[in-house]
Hints:
Blueprint: H1 6-15, H2 19-22, E1 26-30, H3 34-46, E2 53-61, H4 64-73, H5 79-90, H6 93-109, E3 112-113, E4 115-121, H7 132-138, H8 142-158, E5 164-166
Helix pairs in contact: 3-6, 5-7, 5-8
Amino acid sequence: SCEKNPVEAVKTNIFGSQTSTRIVKVAGCFLGQPIIANTIMNYLQSNNSMPDVLSPGAYFGLQAPDYSILNSLGASATTDTVISLMQDRMNSPTAISQLVQHSNRAVQDSVRLVFYEGGQHLIIQSAVATYNPSIYAAQTDTGMYNLYNDWFNIIRDTTIADLFLQFHLAGTQTTASVGGGTFGALQSIYDN
């Protein structure tokens, strides 16, 4: 009842009979670990509190073996190298399987699958890595545009997703802290 649950009371008082059409319950999860989505959905199901939407973050980027390659290349790493490594990672059986597993879980639970945030995610491993210029240059390279198109096609072809929202964090190259990474097409809010 509303008296026992203050959140329900607020929803009822504000939205009244429109609550079910105005409030969307979202279960956020991590794309790289479908087991987390399963754990969340199982918990919600066992508590009769199913969401309307399952929403993993649909990011693509580099992983440890890719950074080893970039480290070995050092300053000779190119934008094409970064783009190629990201393309390989995006098209890997693991990435495809993760998308499919989330989609299957959404189907199983009769909920929508949306990607509330996603896009490229390039993490800088060291502020002084000699390959960093290739990562920065990849942000605005035509290859990044092509990666996004490929990612959208993969999502369309392998999932039931009906929404993708690109997360965008604009900042200067110097503010991309180690481990924080860079997200999005602009390196600065002052870029055109």
